[in-house]
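Protein modeling request. Please complete all fields; requests missing the sequence field cannot be processed.
Requester role: graduate student
Desired output: 3D structure, token encoding
Chains: 1
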Amino acid sequence: MKIGIVTFFCVPNYGAMLQAYALWKYLEERGHEVEFIDYAFGNARRIPLWKCFVSRQLHGYLDAIRKKLKAYVRFKIVHFSDAFPRTRPVATFVELKDIGCNYDALIVGSDQMWNPLWCSGKSLPVVMLGFAAKGERRIAYAVSFGTKEWKKEQKSDEAGRLLREFDAISVREESGMKLVQELSGRDDAEWMVDPTLLHSASFYEPLLNVECRKRHRYVFSYMLEEWMNDENVESVIQAVMAAKGIDEIHTDKVSVGGLWSPICKMFDVQSKVPVGTWLSEIANSDFVVTNSFHGTVFSILFHRPFVTMPVSGKMSGMNERIVSLLSMAGLRSRIVNIEDLDGCRDVVGSAINWDEVDRKLDAERLKADIFLKKALL
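Delivered output (377 residues):
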């Protein structure tokens, strides 16, 4: 079967690229021909360097430069996706309809493809596969809403209409099943694990950076900065290091070299390590501290003890996917509140029964196999 995938696959985010890679390989291993539909989502293109230094803002001009310069230098990690099979670049809905008719099935997912904060505008019929040709199967695999609420003004009627056209729907947060029902009246949406969890750790071992040999004990800190609003995060990291007796910390950041090094230092901008290095840092660590869903996922896959800090404020809906995953795995206690350092120390000192976790993941993989086989019949 020829399958087209709509997802974020060419963006400077480790989890986004790895979930796309995992779904592609999973389907390919089962005999399907797979292509990613290269739609021009706003976050899928690198801005020209000169635009980093241009801003209409007078107030906060330097902060605007820093933000854009950081995005520019970190975009290079998308080279990981260069080998992904893809269509020609597509910029309009008309072009999508033209390309969409080339497939037996279309799959949207995983990642935050249905987050109404960004997709309820012109992107809605894209991410809900409104361009599918008659007879093409429409499948949602572990799609994330990233919120518990879809407001009426966020084109909820159109979302409901498009959802009713799907042949099979699965979501990444348990709360997503309720959202599907509220929007469309459907009660058949299922909860599925993220595509990265369709594979065991051995699947990712060829991607590891062999030069990242472990020489010292260290804690790996992977924090999504855009959601790290609390100054107490450092206190949690220090509490973990003290509890483990470790004085070395690694992160996903790396200094920018070459011609732009002085400017990046001036603006306190760092680049990111390649995907293989990021995976290796998790796999070789003694402990992981993160607020990231995929930071949590790969800690579990590589059997690394970890704590996950929930996101606060208006983005707290992002925690649903982490709560769903850790509840399934029997690891909900690994979620620690920043204010509760004593509770954090208790979690750091507790062991994880990895055999039991793997057993539960195997059961979820079997469930996903059944879902996708049925959806692609």
